[in-house]
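Handoff note, outgoing to incoming analyst
You'll be picking up this chain. Sequence as last confirmed:
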Amino acid sequence: MTVGDLLPRLSGVAPTPEAPVTAPAVRDQLVTAIAHDSRDVVRGTIFVAVRGQRFDGARFASDAATRGAVLVVAASMRPDDARVPWLRVPDARVALAELAAAFYGDPSGDLTVVGVTGTNGKTTTTYLLSAIFDAAGWPCGRIGSVGYHTGRREKVAERTTPEAPAIQALLREMVDNGRTTCAIEVSSHALAMRRVDQIQFAAAVFSNLTRDHLDFHPDMQDYFATKRRLFDMRRPGAPAVLNLDDPYGVDLAGTVDHSMTYAIDSAADVTPEHLEMTLSGSFMDVCTPRGRLRIRSGLPGRLNVYNILAAVAAAVALDVPFPAIERGVAGLDGVPGRFEVVSTRDDDVIVIVDFAHTDDALRAVLTAVRALSPHRVISVFGCGGDRDAAKRPLMGAVADRLSDLVVVTSDNPRSEDPDAIIAEIRLGMESPADADQLRHRGIADRAAAIEYAVRQAEPGDAVVIAGKGHESHQLIGDERRPFDDRRVAHGALGRRRADIGWA
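Most recent structure output, in case you need it:
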């Protein structure tokens, strides 16, 4: 593929004196890659200079040229000292998506791609969809915050939704590996930064919208408007799967076409009957426009009921056979770091690890745990540094209200003082920080906090460790330190069993 083959995909480009790309010496250059980071440039790369939060990629054009770039695409003017052909475009991020899709042969056109967006539930819903599609004999790839599965390999995720060249490369790998479907988590950052532009979505799913990422979005209206972009990226006639128990889902239902709605409490196209939730899973009949399904799932809690309904609604809308839907849901034992029970039958307490890192997600998890009727609920959580600080007291208030004991600790403090973050979380708690030590404790060391919670638990208690879920590291200052809540909890449970003579 040459530069000339790719240029027609760029929108809003007009020939200018500063962009002599009409010359055969430029147009006939073979293209080996599309990159937005100059460090990834190899000989034959088109380097797209996107503007980030801290730097304009155009500053690194000289480095890209040194590494072998054949063309720079940027929204800025060509500098006088540029050593490589330069093409100016209206929006470099749009151009990055357009070039990446063209370079990899528009692989989404050969896949049934389902995008899942919302604040909570994206990961579990994509896992459920993948299991359903596989059960139907529609081999499925998956892209999300836990990992990228392309059929022959599972790669640990660097971010929920990667940049456009990486997404298009993954989709191409799925097609080459015989995948026919793909379930992808679509974050608001990905939509705002045009990472999923050029993907032909065969269905779009909306789970819910609650306060999150307000360090990135100026307000909730912008957050919602960004999420809504996904529904404008569907193929003609593609379904929009919407949660009518969420007010933003109701708003969407009034503005998008081809909707398939779901809910627990509201009237919708897909709803549960005879719902039973236990620690071992969720059991229900599901009423749909195509008939009734019997759903048996090992995923416990009300949040997971919503995730199941979302996946079922999408599968029904895409005409997946009912037996495959039932088998797929039943066959998914769990999702890493999502309401993951890490204790065993040998333990006298229940320990659950969950990714909940917003006040609404923490409320949902603690409410779901309380519904399982434990003796007491003990919560362990923190808040990330250098992120939306306004949610810290909100999470403190939720934990204080729904827990019998709260252990406030570090999450990923980054450049902030962990003790200062803990103090801000505790501002949301009713009792003063030094008044009622039996109700809440601040322990900055996360491993020590988990150990303390497990030690303090009484037989029949439930310990919820929230915030990091599947993550295997902790960001402290400039360091990325190995840390996994599940491993730490396993160790604490083992020591608890040994102390009481079980091991």
